[in-house]
Write a structure and sequence with these properties.
single chain, alpha+beta, 5-stranded mixed β-sheet, elongated
C-alpha cells in the first residue's frame, strides 16, 4: 500500500468516526489535566506538613548565635488545615526584598499568637514564680515569621524568629563574628527585620520570658 492510499484511508476513517475521535481526545485531555491537578495537590499536601522552626537568635559576646527552641510540623502546631494552605501560598509569594512572610493581618496574628503561646507554655514556671514574689529574670523579645533564602536555595520551612527586642533595635553596623559559617544569612535577615520593625511593628509580636 502506497502512502497516498494510506492517507486517503485515514481521511475516510476520520470522516466516519470524527465524533469518537474528538471524544477520545477530550477524555485524554481531561484525564491528563486531572492527573496534573492531583499530583500538584498531593505535593501541596506534603509541603503543608513542612516543619516550623522556632529559633532564638542572639549576639553573645558580640558573636551571632542561633539556638532552636522548638520545631514541629505545621499541621501539628497549627490545628486549622486552611492555615497550612495559606502558609504555602504565602511562602510561594516571598521575595528577596524582605524575609517576612506576606500574610494577611488576621492570618499573621493567628500564626504569631499560636507560636507565642507555644513558647510561653514552656516558660510558664517563670511567670508563676514572679507572681509568687520569687526572684526571676525577665526579658522582652520580638517574634516574627520569616522565610530565609540561603545561596539561592529555598525550602518550605517556616521560621519563627525570636530575638531580644533591644538586640534587634541596636544591631552592629558591620557583620559580627559567626559561631557557624552557615549563620551568615541570619544577620542579613536581622538587618531586614530591623528595617521592617521600624516601618511596621504590627508585623511582629512582643513577648516576655521569665526565668
Amino acid at each position: 500500500m502506497d502512502w497516498d492510499r494510506a492517507i486517503e484511508l485515514a481521511r475516510e476513517f476520520a470522516e466516519r468516526h470524527w465524533i469518537e475521535l474528538l471524544a477520545g481526545a477530550g477524555l485524554f485531555l481531561v484525564g491528563a489535566g486531572w492527573g496534573l491537578w492531583r499530583g500538584r495537590r498531593q505535593a501541596r499536601r506534603r509541603r503543608a506538613d513542612g516543619r516550623v522552626n522556632v529559633s532564638l537568635t542572639s549576639l553573645h559576646d558580640s558573636t551571632l548565635r542561633i539556638r532552636t527552641l522548638l520545631e514541629k510540623p505545621q499541621s501539628e502546631l497549627f490545628a486549622v488545615p486552611l492555615i497550612t494552605e495559606r502558609i504555602q501560598d504565602a511562602l510561594a509569594r516571598t521575595n528577596g526584598k524582605t524575609p517576612l512572610v506576606p500574610l494577611s493581618t488576621d492570618d499573621r496574628w493567628y500564626l504569631l499568637n499560636t507560636v507565642l503561646n507555644e513558647i510561653s507554655e514552656r516558660f510558664a514556671e517563670g511567670h508563676l514564680k514572679r507572681d509568687m514574689g520569687e526572684p526571676v529574670k525577665s526579658e522582652r523579645y520580638l517574634l516574627s515569621l520569616a522565610y530565609e533564602v540561603s545561596g539561592g536555595e529555598r525550602d518550605d520551612k517556616l521560621r519563627a524568629l525570636v530575638i531580644k527586642k533591644a538586640t534587634l533595635l541596636s544591631l552592629p553596623e558591620s557583620d559580627p563574628p559567626l559561631e557557624s559559617p552557615q549563620h551568615a544569612v541570619r544577620f542579613q535577615t536581622l538587618q531586614k527585620l530591623a528595617t521592617e520593625y521600624q516601618r511596621d511593628p504590627a508585623q511582629f509580636l512582643e513577648l516576655e520570658v521569665c526565668l
